[in-house]
């Protein structure tokens, strides 16, 4: 099966992240979420899609593939937090205040988007963290005006998570490459926030390409948005 394991890094260009993929030996579909292809995603009302997953699980690359399908806007966690990482001490009051200031600007711009613009956000929010609770409350507030909210929990197996988080391409984008961090989340059984939302998909990306993940998410959204018979 084609998988993220076929990726040997990401090439950074001026416009986007481009996966560098080895030749495929076998092609399979995105498994169990397929719906009637005649059901257009364009008929789904405005939405907020939140990709929540620990570092190295593929959130940003999936978000880019999903934006290719949906249009709309992608706002990943690194875009929102890199100014704070660059100019303040991590986890200091200045760090958190900087992120909150960026959120305020960002959320004002989101409010000015056309009402039919899909919005894709990424983050790594976990249960038991005060900061994650604050960030999740912000997601819920955004969903009140830009919902409905579709939460996707992005997972992969520990070995693949460690391989991905060590990718040289992550360093080029100021992402964490700490393999021990990936293992820690798995070993501690840390839970992602948002599991009690109305629309939640748990997506194992271990053996799926980014395009297959985007297809699975898009199919699921169409299914959840369909009126009950």
Beta content comes to 15-25%
How many DSSP helices?
8
- CATH-defined topology: Rossmann fold
How does the helix and strand content classify structurally?
alpha/beta
Form type: globular
Major sheet characteristics: 5 strands, parallel
Kindly state the number of beta strands.
7
The run of helices and strands is EEEHEHHEHEHHHEH
How many domain regions? 1
CATH class: Alpha Beta
Fraction of residues in helix:
40-55%
What is the second-level CATH architecture?
Answer: 3-Layer(aba) Sandwich
Spatially, the strands of the biggest sheet line up as 4-5-3-6-7
Secondary structure topology:
Layout: E1 7-12, E2 17-21, E3 48-53, H1 59-70, E4 73-75, H2 77-87, H3 93-111, E5 119-123, H4 130-146, E6 149-155, H5 158-165, H6 168-172, H7 179-187, E7 200-204, H8 210-225
Parallel strand pairs: 3-5, 3-6, 4-5, 6-7
Antiparallel strand pairs: 1-2
Helix pairs in contact: 1-8, 2-3, 5-7
